[in-house]
Amino acid sequence: MTRISWCVIYMVGLVACGGGSDPVDGSCGQDEDGGQTHEDAGQAPDDSGVVMEEDAGAAMDGGPGDAGMSMDDAGPGDGGMPPVMMCCTDAGWDVTEGVTPDADCVPWTLVDSGPMAPSLGSAGLAIATASNAQNQYYEQAAPTIDAGDHVQIRFRMQVTSSSAVEPWRAGTGVLFTFGPSREKNSLYLADGEIFLLSAENVRGMSASVPTSDAMHDYVIDVDRLTGSVSVSYDGTPTLTGNLFINPGDTTTDRILWGEVSNVATGSSVWESFEHDAWSGCHVAAWAASDAVLPDLDCPPWTTVDSAAADPVLSSAGVTVSTASNAENMAYTQTSIAAGSLVRIAFRMRVVSESTSASWRAGAGVIFAFGPAREKNSLYVADGEIFLLSAENIRGMAATVPTSDAMHDYVVEVDRTTGAVTVSYDAVPTLTGSLFVNPGDTTTDLITWGEVSNVATGESIWESFEHDAYAGCL
Asked: How far apart are CA 130 and CA 168, in angstroms?
């Protein structure tokens, strides 16, 4: 199984419940199994590799005039080597990491009332219980879990034994619940059979497949918009079902895997487990308080810098500055996988700027998404902000203070309707739309700084974040 990841700093407290009970509502509670279970409780790099925007011949979008731009991947002023940080790269665990899931990064909470602790070997992680009353499983819950519209859970494992006193449980299971309504389902794995639930303690669709002969790959795809759940076994679509709600449930946003039921017992060996519902999967956030330049942050931004000077980091923020229109200094990310809604938020101050074209300014934020490269840009001038209405055409503008102090900007993009809205210091200020430039050849990028070859300027950025980062899977 391929794992693709970037770096995100993450610390989480661990909570475990003993004596056979599991964490529900932040404590140890009971569930429908009649015992104490956990389960139901109740613009940018283009063909040249450098991205920005079209500036009428001096474009920063792989067009003419880009040849002089460079991508300083190491980042200016890094002294040659980035600082050593404790970084969590994703919410996945793999036996090749050489640690148990509770010691991984991001860590999983171990809930264990079994006869012995999980055992890690070269073949995988062995999980086992000796009676129905015992449980042994790993859990991640909110705020670690923050699911988007679509969730994928992938794992590779082998059932070694399974018995249950109820048809709607097995000796191994994967449980998942999301959102304020706690929409949920579970995949159970018995010896020679897998099945979903159709309602609380009601067995759903099942399939007879080998589970104990060898390791097998399982993929659970959840569409929270439609409620559909699908399961693939060794790459073959095998089960379908739906999310459901149990009115008695009071907790949400969690994923569990292992021996999870108090009416079943079993043993299994796990080679890997990963998902993309981790809160760090889709957010890329940098702030001056991180005390590193954006190109050294987690996840990193690529520096685009053709200026004589380098970005300068201070307690106030990162200073981005160019001395002529021909120069650029910006940060870009192309590890972008935008959902239907995208939010970009930043805090910055314009120091100075000038432009030779009315549709550019000395500071800007460029964003482009999807195969059609639907795009727009927010430009921040001295005393004015504006969007574009088409390529190199100035759109809606507003006269607001931009150089007197730091100000907060939020760009919200609805990719379904194409609407773009901008708030300035929490006040809705601009509206516009995504547009397509037929000449563009790249997509999925967010770039910020001094981004134009017909403008120059200096600005100080205190923070920048967005929720379109392509993390985890």
From this structure: 19
Residue 87, pLDDT > 60, answer no
In a shared domain, residues 51 and 99: no
Are 300 and 187 contained in the same domain? Answer: no
- Of the two residues 313 and 2, the one the predictor is more confident about is 313
Structure tokens at 142: 């909110």
Same domain assignment for residues 137 and 256: yes
Which DSSP string do the residues of 38-76 spell out, in sequence order? Answer: SSS---EE-TTS-EE---TTS-SSSSTT-TT--EETT-T
Measured at the alpha carbon of residue 34, what is the angle toward residues 147 and 21, in degrees to the nearest 5? Answer: 60
| Distance in angstroms (rounded) separating the CA atoms of residues 457 and 3 | 40
Tell me which residue has tokens 């998942």: 176
- 3-state DSSP assignment of residue 295: helix
* Residues ≥6 apart with Cβ < 8 Å to 81: none
> What is the DSSP code string of 73-133?
TT-TT-TTSPPP---B--S-EEGGG-S-GGGSSSPPEEEE-SSS--EEETTEEEEE-SSTT
Q: Are 1 and 290 in contact (CB under 8 A)?
A: no
Q: What is the pLDDT of residue 337?
A: 83
**Rg of the chain's alpha carbons, rounded to an integer?**
25
Average pLDDT on 15-33 reads 31
Residues 243, 369: one domain? Answer: no
151 within 8 A of 175, measured Cβ to Cβ: no
Choose between 459 and 49: higher pLDDT.
459
CATH code assigned at 176: 2.60.120.200
Q: 472 falls in which pLDDT band (50, 70, 90)?
A: low
Residue 4 lies in a domain: no
> Does 130 share its domain with 181?
yes
Residues 367 and 459 in one domain: yes
Domain hosting 180: range is: 22-41+91-275
**Each residue's pLDDT tens digit, 140-150:** 999 889 888 88
Q: How far apart are CA 414 and CA 431, in angstroms?
A: 11
Are 75 and 186 members of one domain? no
| Three-class secondary structure of residue 290 per DSSP | helix
| CA 150/CA 275 separation, integer angstroms | 11
What is the pLDDT at residue 7? 36
Choice between 460 and 65, residue whose per-residue pLDDT is larger: 460
| CA–CA distance, 338 with 434 (Å, rounded to integer) | 14
Average pLDDT over residues 91-107: 92
Tokens read off for 444: 């999925």
Digit-coded pLDDT (tens) for 258-310: 999 999 999 999 999 999 888 777 778 899 998 999 999 878 899 999 999 99
Q: Are residues 386 and 400 in the same domain?
A: yes
The tally of domains found in the chain comes to 2
